[in-house]
Each structure stands twice: as C-alpha cells, then as structure tokens.
Design a protein that fits this description.
Length: about 220
C-alpha cells in the first residue's frame, strides 16, 4: 500500500481531482482488511474447530467463542488504556505531552500486523508451504491417519484393560465383602456405569488377596 500513500500525498500537493477516489479506495481497503483480519478469520477458525454436529450449532458455538475471546481482550485493553490515561501518557484530544487515543490505537494495530508479518516470514515461511504440500498429498495424509489410528487403538486397548481391572475389583469386592449402606450404593453406581456387555463378560476376583488395596 506504499504506492497508494505516495499517490495520495502527491495528489494532495497538486490538487488533483483523483484524490477523492484514492481516499475512498484506501478507506474501503483498510476497513475491509481490518474486518477480515480481526473478525472473519478468527470466526472461521473457531468454526473449523467447533465440535458440534450441525451447521447451526457450529455457527453459534464459533460466534460465542469469538465473542468471549474479544471480551477478554477488550477488558484487558480497557484496563491498559485506563492505566495509560491516568498516567497521562495518552489523551482524548491532541496535546503536546502525550499520544492521542486514535493515534495509539492505530499504532497498536500496525504493531500487531507487523508481528504477524514477522511470524509468517520466519516460521510461517517454511511451515505454511510445507503444510500446503502435505495437504495436497493424499498418500502422506493417509499414512499419518493410519499411524494415528494405530496409536488410538493402543490407547483404547490399554484403557479397556484398566476398566476391566477396575470392574473386576468392584465386582469381587461386592461379592466377597459384606457391604451395606451408602458404600454399597456407591459401589453399585460405579458398576452400573460400565457397559452391560462388559459387566456380563468380566469375571470378578474370587480371592480377597487379588483385590487392589485401593478398593479394600
């Protein structure tokens, strides 16, 4: 946008009639960029990360997540601006002793944009093209998905063995010990949380020594 700034300055000095058109173009481009960068892109990111099962719920969830994100940052920004205003570092009207609020917010937005550029020119210069290349290669995506499926299956089997051990302890404790009152109700509630097929197929421990100390 540097040539547009130069053109605006030149046309203002020469009194050109095209200054109004360039000014309108600059205003539209600036505010559309702000809208896309700070509202649309965060909302679309929240929409993609939403775990709802229908489109209406995903839109609602993403809007709420984006709204709360801006509420937190707006609260922090108001406190920070109030701190600067109390110290006299910024003022509403233009003064010689500090910065104006409008100029400070413009500088803050420019600094955030420069930070994004630095991130993309550093880490993003390599990671973004690599990610695009990875997304375009279906075989690589399939290999990664199969590896994740294998890892998830191992975790599922380990969790199932742990659950079966807990259920065997609970069933054995209920059968071997004479438990009454609230403790028996809690134990029945724990057993009923397991699937019925697991309860039917799991053999309870028949020896008190086999029950873990945690359940005794």
């Amino acid at each position: 946008m540097l040539p547009v700034d130069i053109a605006l300055s030149s046309s203002a000095e020469e009194g050109s009639q095209s200054q109004n058109y360039l000014h309108i173009f600059w205003v539209v481009f600036y505010w559309s960029s702000m809208l896309l960068s700070y509202i649309m892109i965060p909302w679309l990111m929240s929409y993609e990360l939403s775990g709802e099962f229908n489109q209406a719920e995903r839109i609602k969830r993403s809007l709420l997540a984006t709204l709360w994100w801006y509420v937190y940052f707006a609260g922090f920004g108001v406190v920070f601006l109030a701190f600067l205003w109390v110290r006299g570092s910024i003022s509403i009207k233009e003064s010689s002793g500090g910065f104006t609020l409008n100029g400070f917010l413009m500088a803050l937005g420019g600094a955030a944009g420069l930070l994004q550029i630095i991130i993309f020119l550093g880490y993003g210069l390599i990671s973004v093209p690599r990610y695009i290349k990875f997304r375009s290669n279906n075989k690589s995506r399939l290999d990664v998905a199969l590896c994740r499926v294998d890892q998830a299956e191992d975790k599922m089997q380990q969790a199932r063995l742990t659950a079966e051990d807990i259920l065997a302890n609970a069933l054995g404790m209920r059968n071997l010990l004479s438990i009454q009152g609230d403790l028996k109700d809690r134990l029945d509630e724990l057993i009923n949380r397991f699937p019925r097929d697991m309860i039917d197929t799991t053999l309870p421990y028949t020896n008190i020594d086999h029950i873990d100390l945690f359940f005794r």
